[in-house]
């Protein structure tokens, strides 16, 4: 008998497993120091010093409609914005703390505007919510693994009431699930050491989430993190194991399956440079080709890519990120059929690239030019037709004289005159649609 949580998770994540490509957005006060979202922890910045950024946060260039246009042009089908990161700064008009965007010079409910803008573009909209809160007085300080004041003996925890913190944390999640319409994703971050599961009162929390927004999908970090996924990897996941796993800054070698070999929904969350939050000095951008190939690799392993942008202090997505996303969008516009609704293929990964599949449509993603025919291993006699996906042009199933000794395999040439396969029509990834019999 299939586990109830797996059965329900499968239903809830159908749209997610079709969407395949999403935008992660890390934005907040840390965009002003511009040294990444962990700046308070790394530099051990005291709260009163961090308030300098609170007092100058204007969000003067914040235009979520533009963000949504950028995401749509890139071919992204969902988005996740940090409603609150570890620093505790809230981008919505929460009633439970003054440390919020509506009390800064911005004076705006940034979450509400984001949700409205992305929904208007037909993009599913989710929120990231940090279950860690370095600002809250009842969250452990001294001796914690990463709190900014973890080394300060004056910040001992005896007077801190962790349950009071949990009431606050659950209360904020209730606000977001009650006052902001139908959310699509709640992305919790993150559990560590003994701070996991029951410690967060996760059972009570997930029951609230499921009662307020039963369709909502949640990640696995009430139990896990980027280091360990928790019981979502098992055939008997807990009620708060989450609906999808979220490997971080890597793509799982074989995708993610439980011990029965059943696929677990997952998304790899990856940055465009090396920071989640805006880092002005970090110009180490991934190329559009690398992004395309990350998307294809994820889908070929039954997963999604959640690709991050880190808007600057004023609310602008960095121009370099926009340029990359526009180039990715041009590829997605021509080849998206090989991504959306596709997943892992039963056919073994070929030498020259990867396969994605959707029913009888098998997509060959050719990443390396080949001498001689492109080989489709053991597919002889199983193919109805071949088309270059980007322009629909016919590609002939080749029975060239130099392939006669390999009757079990099918072959084709991308250059039908010169019987070869270089240069590739699209060096990022040339996609051939294979209609199977
Ligand atoms: C890690 C980082 C956090 C980031 C998250 C994104 O948990 O600590 O800053 O938001 O990854 O996956």
Tell me the number of structural domains: 2
CATH hierarchy: architecture of the largest domain: Alpha-Beta Barrel
| Secondary structure category | alpha/beta
Instruction: Find the count of extended strands (DSSP E, 2+ residues).
Output: 14
N- and C-termini, Cα separation: 34 Å
Give the names of the bound compounds: alpha-D-glucopyranose
How many helices in DSSP terms? 10
Task: Report the uncertain regions.
Answer: none
Strand order of the largest sheet: 5-4-3-2-1-7-6
Which CATH first-tier class of the largest domain would you pick? Alpha Beta
The largest sheet is: 7 strands, parallel
Q: What fold name goes in the CATH topology slot of the largest domain?
A: TIM Barrel
Average pLDDT figure: 97
Shape: elongated
SSE series = HHEHHHEHEHEHEEHEHEEEEEEE
Helix content: 25-40%
Content of β-strand: 15-25%
How would you describe the overall organization of this protein?
Helix content is 25%, strand content 16%. With 437 residues, it is α/β, with parallel strands linked by helices. It has a seven-stranded parallel sheet with strand order 5-4-3-2-1-7-6. It has a five-stranded antiparallel sheet with strand order 8-9-14-11-12. The protein has a two-stranded antiparallel sheet with strand order 10-13. The model has no long low-confidence stretch (mean pLDDT 97). A hairpin with a 2-residue loop joins strand 8 and strand 9. The chain folds into two domains: 333 residues, TIM Barrel, CATH 3.20.20.80; 84 residues, Immunoglobulin-like. The site of alpha-D-glucopyranose has 9 residues, from loops.
């Amino acid at each position: 008998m299939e586990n109830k949580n797996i059965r329900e998770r499968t239903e809830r994540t159908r749209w997610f497993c079709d969407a395949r490509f999403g935008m992660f957005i890390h934005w907040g006060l840390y965009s002003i120091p511009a040294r990444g979202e962990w700046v308070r922890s790394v530099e051990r910045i005291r709260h009163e010093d961090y308030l300098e950024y609170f007092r100058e946060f204007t969000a003067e260039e914040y235009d979520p409609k533009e963000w949504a246009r950028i995401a749509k042009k890139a071919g992204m089908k969902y988005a996740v914005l940090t409603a609150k990161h570890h620093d505790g700064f809230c981008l919505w008009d929460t009633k439970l703390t003054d440390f919020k965007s509506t009390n800064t010079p911005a004076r705006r409910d940034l979450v509400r505007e984001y949700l409205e803008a992305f929904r208007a573009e037909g993009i599913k909209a989710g929120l990231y919510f940090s279950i860690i809160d370095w600002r809250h007085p009842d969250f452990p300080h001294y001796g914690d693994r990463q709190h900014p004041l973890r080394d300060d003996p004056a910040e001992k925890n005896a007077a801190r009431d962790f349950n009071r913190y949990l009431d606050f944390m659950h209360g904020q999640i209730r606000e977001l699930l009650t006052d902001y319409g139908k959310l699509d994703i709640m992305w919790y971050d993150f559990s560590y050491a003994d701070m996991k599961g029951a410690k967060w009162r996760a059972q009570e929390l997930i029951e609230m989430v499921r009662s307020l927004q039963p369709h909502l999908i949640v990640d696995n970090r009430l139990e896990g993190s980027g280091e360990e996924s928790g019981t979502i990897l098992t055939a008997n996941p807990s009620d708060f194991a989450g609906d999808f796993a979220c490997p971080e800054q890597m793509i799982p070698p074989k995708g993610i399956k439980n011990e029965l070999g059943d696929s677990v929904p997952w998304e790899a969350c990856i940055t465009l440079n090396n920071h989640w939050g805006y880092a002005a000095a970090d110009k180490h951008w991934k190329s559009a080709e690398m992004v395309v190939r990350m998307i294809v690799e994820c889908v070929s392993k039954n997963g999604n890519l959640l690709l991050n942008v880190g808007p600057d202090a004023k609310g602008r997505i960095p121009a370099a990120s926009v340029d990359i996303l526009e180039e990715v969008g041009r590829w997605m516009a021509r080849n998206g059929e090989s991504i959306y609704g596709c997943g892992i293929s039963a056919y073994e990964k070929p030498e020259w690239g990867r396969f994605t599949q959707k029913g009888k449509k098998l997509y060959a993603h050719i990443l390396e030019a080949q001498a001689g025919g492109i080989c489709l291993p053991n597919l002889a006699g199983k193919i109805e037709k071949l088309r270059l996906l980007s322009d629909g042009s016919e590609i002939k199933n080749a029975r060239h004289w130099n392939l006669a000794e390999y009757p079990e395999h099918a072959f084709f040439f991308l250059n039908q005159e010169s019987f070869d396969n270089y240069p590739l029509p699209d060096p990022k990834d040339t996609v051939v649609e294979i209609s199977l019999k």
